[in-house]
Design goal:
about 400 residues; alpha+beta; Nuclear Transport Factor 2, Chain: A; Glucose Permease (Domain IIA); 3 domains; eight-stranded antiparallel beta sheet; six-stranded mixed beta sheet; about 40% strand; binds zinc ion
Length: about 400
């Protein structure tokens, strides 16, 4: 209860204070340098536990964070998003600054869109909704699916999607439950089902397959975007998979790409990031060392040696922390690491058909009705897209 009250107070004070600021996290800034710059006690950083230090290393350049100052222009509170579900909350407790990790509060709204193609699906979605996130997600989901070159003016497009809303603004990334493009009287569907996009026959459409980056003995920690510890009453997240393996075990690029970072990254210790196609990025942390020829900007092939398992940064034992991001948002690597694309069968296929039949009915109804699409005016991205990645 105390938590809820203090959070409400937080919202109210942010809403009515004249000294509320929204700022962009600078490139190259770490949580530690941030504390130094704002003359906040560095002990906040050094007293973080292992999981918190990993999360502190997840702050993304360009993310919008919020600062509240009092009448004397002294810092009162700071909110820094980590991923899309949690944020660091720095505030004064008994005249001393402390940090806690709290959830980002948002609502979810279910929406639909039904339009005739005039230009391209991307342009028409944008015109109807002014929603870049939706237009981008549509293009992303249809990759490896339907060939858009055969589309004609007047072909129909129907989407059912859910989006997050935070303080009245469209917020964060989204998934489209069903996309339907009707061309030459044929309905082409894409469904989002259990973390992946599928066609109507239950065939997975993800066209980005990753290899396992290390030969591991066991998975010591799974991916989670938000977890509440019922005894300690704290929130945590683990934005990757931990693979336990001996020090010195080879770490290999999970896919073809270009190295975008080699070096120290706070609680992650020695870290490599690689940018891949389709706005994916992989991260390899706690490394003992890097492959000799590895440089920022180097092109690497899937399976190429890039480094060695270690115990650097905040780590309780030798392991590889492996992270996967789409447009800077952490997603579960387990949904993308596999030998081949899934095709549903048996019981799973039956469940899928039941699920998608309901969505198909909704699409048919949307084709007959004329509901005005929701036009977005305000955006609040945790991870600000400077421009859409089309
Ligand atoms: Zn980890």
């Amino acid at each position: 209860m105390i938590k809820i009250v203090s959070f409400l107070f937080l919202l109210i004070s942010f809403a009515y204070s004249a000294t509320f600021e929204e700022l962009k996290w600078p490139k190259g800034e770490t949580f530690l340098t941030f504390l130094g710059k704002n003359t906040l006690p560095l002990s906040i950083y050094y007293s973080l536990d292992k999981e918190e230090q990993e999360l502190a290393a997840e702050i993304v350049a360009g993310v919008k964070y919020q600062v509240l100052k009092n009448d004397q222009q002294e810092l009162e509170q700071i909110l820094i998003p980590i991923g899309e579900e949690l944020q660091m909350h720095l505030y004064k407790k008994d005249d001393k600054f402390v940090m806690e990790i709290i959830p980002i509060i948002f609502q979810e709204e279910a929406l639909s869109l039904s339009v005739e193609i005039q230009n391209s699906p991307y342009v028409d979605i944008l015109k109807a909704t002014n929603n870049y996130v939706l237009a981008n997600e549509f293009v992303q989901s249809f990759r490896g699916g339907v060939n858009f070159r055969n589309l004609q003016k007047g072909d129909k497009l129907v989407l059912f999607y859910k989006q997050r809303v935070r303080l009245g603004k469209q917020y964060g990334s989204m998934k489209i439950d069903v996309s339907m493009v009707e061309t030459a009287r044929k309905k082409n569907y894409i469904f989002f089902y259990k973390e992946n996009y599928y066609d109507k026959n239950g065939k997975e459409l993800e066209n980005f397959l990753l290899g396992t980056p290390v030969n591991y003995t066991r998975i010591s920690s799974e991916f989670t975007t938000k977890r509440y510890h019922p005894i300690l009453h704290i929130y945590r997240a683990h934005l990757g998979i931990d693979y336990a393996a001996g020090v010195g075990t080879a770490v290999r690029a999970a896919g073809n790409g270009r190295v975008s970072f080699v070096g120290q990254k706070g609680g992650y210790g020695n870290t490599i990031t690689i940018n891949h196609d389709n706005s994916y990025k992989t991260l390899y942390a706690h490394l003992n060392g890097f492959a000799k020829s590895l440089r920022n900007g180097k092109n690497v092939k899937k399976g190429e040696l890039i480094g060695y398992v270690g115990n650097t940064g905040m780590s309780s034992g030798p392991h590889l922390h492996f992270g996967l991001y789409r447009s800077e948002v952490a997603i579960n690597p387990a949904s993308v690491i596999k030998i081949e694309k899934n095709a549903l069968s048996g019981r799973a296929m039956k469940d899928f058909i039941d699920y998608t039949n309901g969505l198909k009915q909704k699409v048919d109804m949307a084709l007959k009705s004329t509901i005005a699409p929701k036009k977005e005016e305000n955006f609040s991205y945790a991870h600000l897209l400077e421009k859409p990645y089309m």
